[in-house]
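Lab notebook, bench 4. Still working through the backlog of constructs that have no structural model yet. Next entry is a single chain of 324 residues. Request: give me the structure tokens for it.
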Amino acid sequence: MLTFILHRLLQSVLVILAVALIAFSLFRYVGDPVNAMTGQDTTLQQREELRERLGLNDPFLVQYGRFVADAAQAEFGISYRHRRPVRELLAERLPATLELSIVSMALALLLGIPMGVYTALKPKGILSRGFMSLSLVGVSLPTFLIGILLILLFGVVLRWLPTFGRGEVVHLSGWTTGLLTKSGLQSLILPAFTLALFQMTLIMRLVRSEMLEVLRTDFIKFCRARGLPSRLVHFRHALKNTLVPVITITGLQLGSIIAFAIITESVFQWPGMGLLFIQAITTVDIPVMAAYLCMVAFFFVVINLVVDLLYFAVDPRLRVRRAA
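Model written out:
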């Protein structure tokens, strides 16, 4: 087990270093930091002095090593657009993105897994057909269109929910949350459901297909032949074996939600990292773009490591295989 963890950690470090190299390349090949930090009245001598002070004349490996060392301390320089440390900007936007992502994934799991189990156990029921029809809508419609339709229905026509912003937030030791206020909860409903709909339908269809496959296996037939109750067969034996691929998809999708919540945050003007990244692209704010790439890579690596460890907790065959 320890060897497996060390092997995965080594792979994670290599992945982060590769992403850091890509992020660092933005500074060298996408625009010039000196031009972004100086005006038209700056002389050539002043530009050269600034370039020397920033270390832009150093060799490539020296600059890359300095960038990795600073990134390990969450230091990504000063934002060209906001004129503030990127670390402060990310600290302000990170709670909003994590709150939206975690609530969306929790909603997708709480709805997707029961719906998948139900459609597998009663595939010809009317409710099962309704769930499958809903899954086609969730998979087919793009996220931005779902968000616009929800805004039109619940925000413009019915006027039940707010259509933009995060609402009132509460500050808790440097962390901000809207889950403790009424306006924060109301503002979270539409973007969370928009972001969770695709994930929910994906999890539901995956659980359904895996559940149907597991129910046809020999050990399930043996459990029924022993006279075990249907509830025990379905939810203890069949569902547990179904969750192995679900854990994989859930981990990957959680990373995708954090990384690609850009569209949802743009539609609802949610003040998270995705909206900050879109604004950074429009203004070529390289430090923010590089920091976003490194942070997303870090989230993906951590989530994949957790998923690999959960395999051992769910599937005993992996533990036996690793021991052998």
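Notes after review: The mean pLDDT is 81. The chain has two domains: 2-72, 91-144+192-323. Flag for follow-up if needed.
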